[in-house]
Amino acid sequence: MNERLSRRRFIKQGLIAGAGLSLGLHTVLEAQAMDSHLEISGGKRVHDPVIIKEKDSYYLFCTGPGIPVRKSADLMNWQLAFPASVFAKPPAWVAEKIPNQQDVWAPDISYYNGKYYLYYSVSSFGKNTSVIGLATNKTLDNKAEGFGWVDEGLVIESVSSNNYNCIDPNMIVDAQGQPWLVFGSFWSGIKMHKLDPETGKLSTEDTELYSLASRTVNYGAVEAPFMIYKDGYYYLFVSFDFCCRGADSTYQVRVGRSEMITGPFVDQEGKDLLKGGGTQVTFPNETYKGPGHNAILLEDGIYYIVYHAYNADNNGVSELRIAPLSWDSDGWPHL
């Protein structure tokens, strides 16, 4: 996210149906968004969360010093994992490229080819001097044989002369088993590179930088991509507008889809995401503002949207939100 300053700081259906008679659709959608969320307790103060399950435990990774890690048995009750972060401090190569930056941003976790791939980013706030790195592990259980994070080094970087920003990584494996890396924030928008299946680094055979989504309004505020494949479509989730402003945040999750992983991605109205399209998925409500930077967790056939929002009743701190998505008859996701 471009506005990541101090990330670490950071009613029921009958009633809803009745409310629709007197309230606008937007208000009803807000009420619906409140209704389906899981009750989170313990460790819910997070930014840019992503969740994966190994055996009987869920593991959450988020923005913060060394990439904080939390653990849960039920998605609702969270506690610090052990160790409590992936890195004791950023790897030496990161410190050389992005000096004086302790926070690691927007991690993304995937299980691929027998091990866990954790992509992460480090940047200078408000600049596109940024890097995306990769760490791997055989298991997330610190008591299991083979546990131990291995930093694989730099994957891709951007500098001030580039028209893109290398943060907010997301790994997606296509229908043919080929891995890709989606990333981007502000500047010219969301980009994608093909990955080498053996190394998790950029492919040397296909070096094209694909463009997936962009905006011309609000300073080009689109970031935090997360892509899934479902029922013949690739769904690209992104976040519009601004995070990191507490209760004044305007973040919101949008989505488009394509039959091809390289696009074009269009929203429910047929508008190309490269032209600012995107169907809105998350809405603010009276308590939670700026709901954005989502991940998707598939569990027992249910797609859960995982994101953060700013609690206006708690000094605007960023908190974990999890809710099951529903899919309409045309295959579009909704809360």
CATH homologous superfamily grouping? Glycosyl hydrolase domain, family 43
CATH architectural name = 5 Propeller
Strand coverage percent: 35-45%
Low-confidence stretches: 1-25
Provide the structure class: mainly beta
Number-wise, the strands total 22
Provide a count of the helices. Answer: 3
- In whole angstroms, how far apart are the ends? 23 Å
Which CATH top level class fits? Mainly Beta
Could you explain how this protein is built, in words?
It is a single chain. With 335 residues, the protein is mainly β. The protein has one domain (42-334): Tachylectin-2, Chain A (5 Propeller). The protein has three helices and 22 strands. Strands 3-6-7-8-9 form a five-stranded antiparallel beta sheet. It has a four-stranded antiparallel beta sheet with strand order 1-2-4-5, with no helix packed on it. β14 (222-230) and β15 (233-240) form a beta hairpin. α1 runs antiparallel to α2. The radius of gyration is 19 Å and the shape is globular. The two termini are 23 Å apart. Residues 1-25 have low confidence and may be disordered.
Structure described in brief:
With 335 residues, this protein is mainly beta. The protein has helices spanning 13-19, 25-35, 92-97; strands at 50-54, 57-61, 64-65, 68-72, 78-85, 103-112, 115-123, 130-137, 150-158, 170-173, 179-183, 190-194, 210-213, 222-230, 233-240, 252-258, 279-280, 288-299, 302-311, 317-324, 326-327, 333-334.
